[in-house]
């Protein structure tokens, strides 16, 4: 990583202890290096990844509660790895069905020394698959089974699948503006609460949503 990246991280995350910022910097180095050959994140623009993906994950981490989490469809580990770095007392399961992501996650877990991370290669929608954490995280999750669904129907399908695992009590979403357009019935049935994650770097914002099961 160049000095420029270190400076950006220091400016964007002044409240994060220096040792944790160094781990985030090392994670970012691994992520972008792997992305060059395997296309595992949405952008190769380092500053964008820091100010959008990692910043939003940092804010998301400040809003979640609980001790055990499964980051479903984690891809390159955002937000799960960021949460694990910031919260060594929390247990994070990184779940994805694609071997390319799993290979990267195992390297990152080893190289970053993340003892609070477990990695599971699994299709979330496979029948009878059981989650073993109290909380589930979703960020821009998609799958061929739900890709063409309207947003509310997609969320219902995802949440109803989570309900198959009796240990899960809460679902947290890092999501976009469609969460503001959910029906009153959905909000009431799923005990939905939403908070805006304002960005100082972009005109658009993401949203934190909590569903109680």
Q: What is the overall silhouette?
A: globular
Order of helices and strands: HHHEHEHEEHEHEE
Uncertain segments of ≥5 residues (pLDDT<50)? none
Can you count the helices? 7
CATH topology label:
Rossmann fold
The strand order across the widest sheet is 3-2-1-4-5-7-6
Q: What structural category do the secondary elements indicate?
A: alpha/beta
Q: How many strands, which pairing sense, and closed or not: the largest β-sheet? A: 7 strands, mixed
CATH architecture: 3-Layer(aba) Sandwich
In CATH's first tier, which class applies? Answer: Alpha Beta
> Beta-strand level of the residues, as a percent range?
15-25%
The number of strands is 7
Question: What number is the mean pLDDT?
Answer: 94
Query: How widely separated are the two ends?
Result: 42 Å
Work out the helicity level. 40-55%
Into how many domains do the coordinates divide?
Answer: 1
Going by CATH, the homologous superfamily would be Vaccinia Virus protein VP39
């Amino acid at each position: 990583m160049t000095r420029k990246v270190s400076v950006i991280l220091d400016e964007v995350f002044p409240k994060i202890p220096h040792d944790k910022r160094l781990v985030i910097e090392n994670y970012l180095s691994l992520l972008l290096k792997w992305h060059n050959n395997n296309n595992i994140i949405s952008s190769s623009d380092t500053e964008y990844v820091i100010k959008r993906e990692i910043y939003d994950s940092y804010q998301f981490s400040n809003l979640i509660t609980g001790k055990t989490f499964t980051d479903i469809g984690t891809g390159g580990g955002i937000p799960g790895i960021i949460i694990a770095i910031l919260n060594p007392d929390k247990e994070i399961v990184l779940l994805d069905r694609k071997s390319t992501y799993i290979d990267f996650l195992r390297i990152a877990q080893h190289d970053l020394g993340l003892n609070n991370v477990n990695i599971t290669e699994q299709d979330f929608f496979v029948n009878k698959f059981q989650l073993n954490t109290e909380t589930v995280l979703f960020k821009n999750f998609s799958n061929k089974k739900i890709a063409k669904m309207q947003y509310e129907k997609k969320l219902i399908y995802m949440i109803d699948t989570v309900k198959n695992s009796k240990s899960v009590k809460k679902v947290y979403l890092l999501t976009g503006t469609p969460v503001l357009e959910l029906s009153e019935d959905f909000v009431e049935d799923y005990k939905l609460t939403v908070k805006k994650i304002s960005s100082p770097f972009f005109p658009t914002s993401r949203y934190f949503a909590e569903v109680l099961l």
